Amino acid sequence: MTDPRAKLAAAARDFYQRGWMLGTAGNLSARRTADSFWITASGRPKDALSEEDFVAVDLAGRVQEATAGRRPSAETSIHQVIYRHFPEAQVIFHVHSVEANLCGHFAKAGQLRLPPLEMLKGLGIPEAEPAVDLPVFANHVEVAQIAADMDAAFLQRLPRVPGALIHEHGMTAWGRDFDAARHHLELFEYCFRYLSLARLHGLGGES
Ligand SMILES: CSCCC(=O)C(=O)COP(=O)(O)O
Ligand SMILES: [Zn+2]
């Protein structure tokens, strides 16, 4: 893969402007080789990332390349789990939107039922599929626990959709390239906005 850092910085700026990466929230990554990836450094402002704000790590989380004073995202272990379980994933976006955090409250037994919208086709769901669930994981102060929970769940069953929600934290979506990861994230966030507004209007709250 060609150096993805400029595209990651542009994506972060875009997501910041949408209100999804405020106050340094979120982290983005892209594969560097089959077994390493570039990820945002921890605590950096997502509207003004430069090349130095990315750290290269391997799939075990060991730093391969970093500018002095930069450490990898505190949530690197979550990206490791996703790259390990989804060999086709090349890009991962993790953001914190208001709507995603509202929708975590609508989940039942660790699954959020997505609205049956035409747009689900963009998540790779065939027209005929009646019910599509997004996995929802508990948040933990120890990020390693979130990553371990995801790892255990994905070992049992891979999600039907290219994403996972962390309750009262944020959404993570991935794809085979930059466009696919962005489209997936946009579709999930559209579903979250739809579900939040539907509740507000007293529609479909108990599905
Ligand atoms: C200020 S957001 C709290 C940490 C977090 O959830 C996040 O996504 C950003 O963490 P990072 O270490 O990647 O900056
Ligand atoms: Zn986060």
From TrEMBL:
<comment type="similarity">
    <text>Belongs to the aldolase class II family. MtnB subfamily.</text>
</comment>
<dbReference type="GO" id="GO:0008270">
    <property type="term" value="F:zinc ion binding"/>
</dbReference>
<dbReference type="GO" id="GO:0016832">
    <property type="term" value="F:aldehyde-lyase activity"/>
</dbReference>
<feature type="binding site">
    <location>
        <position position="94"/>
    </location>
    <ligand>
        <name>Zn(2+)</name>
    </ligand>
</feature>
<keyword id="KW-0456">Lyase</keyword>
<keyword id="KW-0479">Metal-binding</keyword>
<dbReference type="InterPro" id="IPR050197">
    <property type="entry name" value="Aldolase_class_II_sugar_metab"/>
</dbReference>
<keyword id="KW-0028">Amino-acid biosynthesis</keyword>
<dbReference type="InterPro" id="IPR036409">
    <property type="entry name" value="Aldolase_II/adducin_N_sf"/>
</dbReference>
<comment type="pathway">
    <text>Amino-acid biosynthesis; L-methionine biosynthesis via salvage pathway; L-methionine from S-methyl-5-thio-alpha-D-ribose 1-phosphate: step 2/6.</text>
</comment>
<dbReference type="GO" id="GO:0019323">
    <property type="term" value="P:pentose catabolic process"/>
</dbReference>
<dbReference type="GO" id="GO:0019509">
    <property type="term" value="P:L-methionine salvage from methylthioadenosine"/>
</dbReference>
<comment type="function">
    <text>Catalyzes the dehydration of methylthioribulose-1-phosphate (MTRu-1-P) into 2,3-diketo-5-methylthiopentyl-1-phosphate (DK-MTP-1-P).</text>
</comment>
<dbReference type="InterPro" id="IPR001303">
    <property type="entry name" value="Aldolase_II/adducin_N"/>
</dbReference>
<feature type="binding site">
    <location>
        <position position="96"/>
    </location>
    <ligand>
        <name>Zn(2+)</name>
    </ligand>
</feature>
<keyword id="KW-0862">Zinc</keyword>
<dbReference type="GO" id="GO:0046570">
    <property type="term" value="F:methylthioribulose 1-phosphate dehydratase activity"/>
</dbReference>
<dbReference type="Pfam" id="PF00596">
    <property type="entry name" value="Aldolase_II"/>
</dbReference>
<dbReference type="GO" id="GO:0005829">
    <property type="term" value="C:cytosol"/>
</dbReference>
<protein>
    <recommendedName>
        <fullName>Methylthioribulose-1-phosphate dehydratase</fullName>
        <ecNumber>4.2.1.109</ecNumber>
    </recommendedName>
</protein>
<dbReference type="InterPro" id="IPR017714">
    <property type="entry name" value="MethylthioRu-1-P_deHdtase_MtnB"/>
</dbReference>
<feature type="domain" description="Class II aldolase/adducin N-terminal">
    <location>
        <begin position="6"/>
        <end position="196"/>
    </location>
</feature>
<keyword id="KW-0486">Methionine biosynthesis</keyword>
